[in-house]
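lol ok so funny story. i was supposed to be doing the assay writeup but got distracted and ended up predicting the structure for this chain instead. priorities right. anyway since i did it might as well share w the group, maybe its usefull for someone
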Amino acid sequence: MSFGTESLPVMFIVLLTLTQSFLPIREDVESALNEFDRWAKQRRATPWNSDLAVRLIQKDDTKSLDRLFRINSQVHGEMNSLYDLSLAFLRCDRVNQARKLLQVPTMQVLWWPGKLY
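and the output, tada:
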């Protein structure tokens, strides 16, 4: 079954709902990541990426956060995934971790010469 471009918004809403259903009620991070991985591979979509990252940061689950980052990188590339992850750290008020991510050598190419403020 193929989906046309007109069904993309509807499909994304379904993906969001499926991924999101594992966390609020059951706190089942492993199942949420499995579903996230499945949709990333099948549809090249990463539903609820930032909220899932925030949840993992709040739980200090570095293993799952690394897995999320690797899955996201396969779809969106490493630099975009680093931006997403740094924004998730900022949403959790972890400015130092976000700053460290933005100071990775591959990211510094995108910044004006000087320091990050």
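The mean pLDDT is 78. The chain is about 70% helix and 0% strand.
back to the writeup now i swear
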